[in-house]
Amino acid sequence: MARLFGTDGVRGLANAELTPELALRLASAAAVVFSDISTGAGSEASGPDDSVATRRPRAVVGRDPRASGEMLEAAVCAGLAATGVDAIRVGTVPTPAVAFLTADYRADFGVMISASHNPMPDNGIKFFSAGGHKLDDEIEDRIEAAMDDDFVRPIGAAVGRVLDAPDAGDRYRRHLAQAIDERLDGLTVVVDCAHGAASQLAPLAYADAGANVITIHADPDGLNINADCGSTHMDKLQAAVLEHGADLGLAHDGDADRCLAVDSTGQIVDGDAIMAILATSLADKGRLHENVLVATVMSNLGLHIAMREAGITVRTTAVGDRYVVEELRRGGYSLGGEQSGHIVVPGSGTTGDGILTGLMIMARMAATSSRLADLAGIVTVLPQELINVRVADKHAVAESQTVKQAVVDAEAELGDSGRVLLRPSGTEQLVRVMVEAGTAEQAGAVARGLADVVAAAGA
């Protein structure tokens, strides 16, 4: 049987794969597991209606605005209450807000109902442990195993309560306001909210800091989340920046845990360039621990070269922001992220936070009186070629000596001016061949040569 948890919680087609029954059972299982490992943080919680219940475990529950979130929120809250856990509903908020509020309310765990950048029909459920941290595999496996158990159901006054938290958004805004040192007065920003969870909070947070804010795609109706907008569809933001003569544009996804940017000329500034901007900013302030930036293996070699020239070491992880967070926590590092725009700043949050990222980008612009294009210019992106090769056994092919030797030969040909990344797909029987080189022609030629070797080995 396939593992229920994926790389970022449990996802599926809402009401078909991710049903209310599954959501209720999953929430109840999580309640049992977190109640077992709770250190009693919930008994000292600072949140809504503390007088109602001061000894039961607590869970913060948030969601993005997609229509199925209403149904799944009800199921999750029912599952929590049925196992004696109080559900603190914080409404429609970004994923990083749930992480923050889990810590701020001193809850035992948090639940976010969202499928992030996925299309509207999908949805997902992800959990945060006490303090707002993503779960490791061991805890996820315990939750999944507990779904088959018979729960002890409390009765009477021991049944959990569902409590609304009307101050949740304001708490998160105050947290964001403390994350930057500079005012943003004089900067004009266009914000694409993807008709998602940041539609209210992102414009307010940027305006709080002094920016002149122009919003697009900030009218969620439950059906239009991520629809041809947001961080996966940047063309409308590019056009809006040029139309309004703005200093920059910022694009979020449906749950606002990522941020990509557009400079004043309409050029996209991806996660690699954003990481470079923020890493040099923190380094200049003496706040980049051990002068280390954490990135995944998918970050462009141009980022590595730029950081090396700036005296910053790049430590790489597997693909996925959870692996970035694990490395950040392991080394006590100050900054990490992905090319896709998931940026994590442990000093200000436990997970990727798109609004925080946008604030930090603009703070660097304000502090240096620089255009975003000039700041992003620190990274020269090397041409990249990616070829997916379908095979019968992706792991066997990737580990074959013939393929490994072909990679060694390709790396020798590229030298210091390029790199090879060959890895099995996480979801399909594919081997992904990625090559970066000084020219597009060389990248393509080396990638095609490697792909031919992979195809032959997998035949």
Automatic annotation (TrEMBL):
Family annotation (PROSITE patterns): PGM_PMM
PTM annotation (Phosphoserine): residues: 116
EC class name: isomerase
Domain Alpha-D-phosphohexomutase alpha/beta/alpha, residue spans: 3-149, 170-266, 270-376
Superkingdom as given in the UniProt entry: Bacteria
EC number in record: 5.4.2.10
Cofactor binding, per record: Binds 1 Mg(2+) ion per subunit.
Keywords: Isomerase, Magnesium, Metal-binding, Phosphoprotein
Alphabetical list of InterPro entries matching this protein: A-D-PHexomutase_a/b/a-I, A-D-PHexomutase_a/b/a-I/II/III, A-D-PHexomutase_a/b/a-II, A-D-PHexomutase_a/b/a-III, A-D-PHexomutase_C, A-D-PHexomutase_C_sf, A-D-PHexomutase_CS, Alpha-D-phosphohexomutase_SF
Entry comment on modification after translation: Activated by phosphorylation.
Residue numbers annotated as active site: 116
Single GO cellular component term: cytosol
GO BP, sorted A to Z: carbohydrate metabolic process; peptidoglycan biosynthetic process; UDP-N-acetylglucosamine biosynthetic process
NCBIfam families hit by this protein: glmM
Function noted in UniProt: Catalyzes the conversion of glucosamine-6-phosphate to glucosamine-1-phosphate.
Protein name: Phosphoglucosamine mutase
Organism of provenance: Gordonia alkanivorans CGMCC 6845
